[in-house]
């Protein structure tokens, strides 16, 4: 069955960096676009960054531009989110999701990993 397992979330101080990972299984990873989304308490889930099947194109939310980098390693069925200069407003549960069509809502999600930015 399809599985997406995120890891890497933790407590980090403002200005810090963090790298999230999402390992996929149960489907042909390289045929799906992948995305990182986040959901803060009381807010809707939102797209943070997305990457095409080959990694040739990416898309970022305005809040993530110049601070976050999405990448993927198809041979390892893994997608990453490198985050720099984290701020308290980045506190959220971060989810990875797969999409067959570019920038469409994912049809499968992981369980998420919690990122808390606080001093």
Looking at this protein, list some descriptive labels.
119 residues, mainly beta, 11 strands, 49% strand, globular
Question: Overview of this structure, please?
Answer:
The chain is mainly β and 119 residues long. Helices cover 0% and strands 49% of the residues. The strands form two sheets. Strands 2, 4, 5, 6, 9, 10 and 11 form a seven-stranded mixed beta sheet that branches. It has a four-stranded antiparallel beta sheet with strand order 1-3-8-7, with no helix packed on it.
C-alpha geometry: globular
Please count the helical segments: 0
Structural class: mainly beta
Low-confidence stretches: none
Question: Measured on Cα atoms, how large is the radius of gyration?
Answer: 13 Å
N-to-C span: 40 Å
Q: Oligomeric form of this entry?
A: single chain
Number of strands: 11
Order of helices and strands: EEEEEEEEEEE
Fraction in helix: under 10%
Please indicate the percent range of residues in DSSP E strands (runs of 2 or more). over 45%
Largest sheet: 7 strands, mixed
Q: Taking all residues together, what is the mean pLDDT?
A: 97
């Amino acid at each position: 069955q399809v599985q997406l397992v995120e890891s890497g979330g933790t407590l980090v101080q403002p200005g810090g960096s963090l790298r999230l990972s999402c390992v996929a299984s149960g489907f042909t990873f390289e045929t799906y676009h992948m995305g990182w989304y986040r959901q803060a308490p009381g807010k809707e889930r939102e797209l943070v960054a997305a990457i095409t099947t080959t990694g040739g194109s990416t898309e970022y939310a305005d809040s993530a531009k110049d601070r976050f980098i999405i990448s993927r390693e198809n041979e390892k069925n893994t997608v990453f989110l490198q985050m720099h200069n984290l701020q308290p407003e980045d506190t959220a549960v971060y989810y990875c999701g797969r999409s067959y069509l570019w920038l469409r809502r994912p049809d499968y999600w992981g369980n998420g990993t919690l990122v808390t930015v606080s001093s």
